[in-house]
Structure formats: C-alpha cells, structure tokens
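I hope you will forgive my troubling you with a question about protein structure. Here, with my thanks, is the record as I have it:
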Amino acid sequence: MKKVLPVLVVDIVLVVVFCAIGRRSHDEANALAGLASTAWPFLGGLAIGWAANEALYRNKSVPASVFPAGVIIWVCTVAGGMVLRVIGGQGTAFSFIVVATCVLALFLLGWRAVYALVRKRSTAH
C-alpha cells in the first residue's frame, strides 16, 4: 500500500487539475462546488481504472508503469468519466471528448513516462 498510495494521489491530483483548468478556461463560477461537479465523473472513471487494473493483473502490474497500468487507468478515466457525465446530465461534445482524451493522456501517461525515465537513469548510475 505504501507504493500504491502516492501513485493514486498523483492521479487524483492530476484529474482534479484537468477539471480545474477546464473550468478556468471557460470562466465558470462557483469554484469549489463547480469543481466538484466537474471532477466527480472523472474521479469515478479513475476509480474504475484502478479497479480494472487490479482485477486484470492482481498485483502483477506496477501502478506507476505506463503500460499496462497507465493505459488502463487512462482509458477508464476518459470512458468512465464520459459515461458518468452523461448519467449526471453533463455535456459530452465531441471536441470535449477529444480534449479530455488528449489532456488526460498527457497527465496520466506523461508523469508515468517521466518517472520511468528518472528511475532508469538513477539505476543506471
């Protein structure tokens, strides 16, 4: 659990940052309540991704790895987030889906890729 919790926290923070950036770019009001409203579907998708990774790999997948964990978590965050947005009566315009997919890939896969490079370099020396 010690190794998993920091990875989960980074994912949660990045999903919330994604939602905050989106709200800020659209000058939306009600900062905290609005952020919670925007974030909950994606945080639900993130939880689905973490659960799916665990169900598929049963502790054989490192959550900080780009593949398979990062990809599973990213895809579930986007897909689950969009489904939960529809259920919650929120929009899912095509352009939003494209932006969410790209930004969440950058966030959820990007930090894992940087982490892998840093670990590789530190163990090589």
User: Anything to note?
Assistant: Residues 94-124 form the longest helix (31 residues). Helices lie at 4-25, 31-57, 66-87, 94-124. The CA atoms of residues 62 and 93 lie 33 Å apart.
